[in-house]
Amino acid sequence: MSTRQPAVQGFGARARALLRPLIPRRFRRDRPVVPVVRLTGVIGFGTPLRPGLSLAGVARMLDKAFGMRNAPAVALAINSPGGSPVQSHLIFRRIRELADEKQRKVIAFVEDAAASGGYMIACAGDEIVADPHSIVGSIGVVGGSFGFTKLIEKIGIERRLYTSGDHKAMLDPFLPEDPGDVERLKKLQREIHEAFIVLVKSRRGGKLNGPENDLFSGEYWTGTRGLELGLVDGIGDLRTVLRERFGDKVVTPLIVAERGWLGRRVAGVAGAASVPGIPAAFAEDVISALEARALWARYGL
Q1: Which of 74, 71, 73 is closest to 29 using CA atoms?
Q2: Lowest mean pLDDT segment, chosen from 2-11, 50-59, 71-80
Q3: 58 contact partners, CB below 8 Å, separation of at least 6
Q4: Residue 160 belongs to a domain
Q5: CATH number of domain containing 224
Q6: Which residues are CB-contacts of 124 (< 8 A; sequence separation ≥ 6)?
Q7: Active site residues
Q8: Would you say the pTM of this structure is higher than 0.85?
């Protein structure tokens, strides 16, 4: 062996030591890294100015988080009152697919709420941790509408609707309610509810501790009660738990959505949000805000 080799190795070690502080913490192998993905807001419906939580909006963040090398786990910071069952399930499936593909543990942290579809997403975690006062559960399906038939009759408006198909105008708010249409809707809701129950059972398994009539009734509980019922695995917060699991030097980079040239969030592959300025967009944004407020208010938030 050449006498120069130890000297070269020593120089390399000193150079690495000098350069280490200049390397971003999440790329340094001497510190554990657990990427954090925030999943916040109403799931599904929204407007260009107020996008809802959807697979299109979070897919790239999830890919980036699970693609981070040497990460022993991925943390999900969840704060959602629910929303679209389809988008909830799509996000759930993508998380589980990436977790299995990359062999990453997933820890879901509940903030104010992981209710309904929000709880479905939380079930993608191998472990669910909640604050004592978090809202969890609401394993059920809800739908609602308004009826305007008496109003339009009172102010003299004539409703004209042309359809092909006996049930194409089912549950139209400007037509009298048809009991048969209501039963069809309830049947759809039961099917979705049953699938939701199967998903929760498949993920929580023997951890669930309570009568099914209560657990799957649509009722919701605090994090403390959710722990007793087996809906969550522990009480705590993201920073404290991750430091306990992976050490005080753990790095928790927040994976954020990409932004367009106007600085607005890019919703996955759907493109940047449009620029405000037309009354229709404003009206849609107001309605979306009211719907979101109604969902949060259901849980006293």
Answers
A1: 71
A2: 2-11
A3: 37, 39, 91, 94, 257, 268
A4: no
A5: 3.90.226.10
A6: 76, 91, 92, 95, 96, 99, 106, 108, 203
A7: 116, 168
A8: no
